[in-house]
Specification:
245 residues, 49% helix, 2 domains, alpha/beta, Rossmann fold, disordered N terminus
């Protein structure tokens, strides 16, 4: 099957944001790439606080109440979607997994360490001061994304970040049980979400394909990350599994 075909037409994709991120970014990344293959995007709004992860998982349950859905997300969102799919294999129609941050326990994974330090700074100095430090020296597009999302989380930002940083991602053994097509996307220049983690996920998943982009490209075109994940999904559905871009 050619990757230009639309094997997912008619499906809904429910995609979750990363730590300290929001549904606005999810839509900017995925909405149009999914529309090109006939898939409707649902991007649940985060419910900040210590119950953030539970609320995200409940959103997946609600979306799949009437039948299987594609699930996935970015960073933490990818972790939670894969976790949900392990528990609900009959309700998962496929996976779109962008920028996974770790496998199994977070340990000293860069994304977990960054979230832990960020939470401590927010608690010590408040969101505004912590945000000023977080955006210092980063690319303007990333500063814009962080400013909007962190401000939206408000006083619940620290609890949200800690909940994410302490939560285990699926293990390689759990990923190996997910016998659905999966697109895994990575940015080759992202030190917080190492490409090696994405490769490990793509290798563990039985029917996955890896596609790559770069943060400097995403900065100019948010949809580049979504296109990479969708391309991975289409390749996986066509049997081109575990194949780096």
């Amino acid at each position: 099957m050619d990757v230009t075909q639309q094997p997912t037409a008619g499906h809904t994709a429910v995609l979750l944001p990363g730590t300290g991120s929001d549904d606005h970014f999810v839509r900017a990344v995925f909405e149009r790439p999914l529309a090109t293959i006939g898939v409707r995007l649902v991007a649940p709004c985060p419910k900040p606080g210590p119950g953030l992860l539970t609320a995200h998982l409940a959103a997946l349950d609600e979306a799949a109440a009437d039948g299987p859905v594609l699930v996935g997300g970015i960073s933490l969102g990818a972790h939670l979607a894969a976790e949900w799919a392990v528990r609900n294999p009959d309700r998962c129609a496929g996976l779109l997994l962008a920028l996974p941050g770790w496998t199994g326990a977070p340990g000293e994974a860069p994304a977990a360490v960054a979230a832990t330090h960020g939470a401590a700074d927010v608690r010590a100095r408040g969101v505004e001061a912590a945000l000023e430090t977080a955006v210092a020296g980063v690319a303007p597009w990333l500063a814009e994304e962080l400013t909007r999302a962190w401000t939206g989380y408000g006083a619940a930002l620290a609890d949200s970040m800690l909940a994410a940083a302490r939560h285990a991602a699926p293990t390689a053994e759990e990923l190996a049980r997910l016998d659905v097509a999966a697109g895994v996307a990575t940015c080759l220049d992202d030190p917080v979400h190492p490409t090696e983690v994405a490769r490990r996920w793509a290798g563990a998943l039985p029917r996955a394909a890896l596609a790559t982009t770069r943060l400097d490209i995403v900065g100019a075109d948010r949809e580049a990350l979504g296109r990479a994940a969708v391309l991975g999904l289409l390749r996986a559905r066509s049997g081109q599994t575990s194949r780096p871009d």
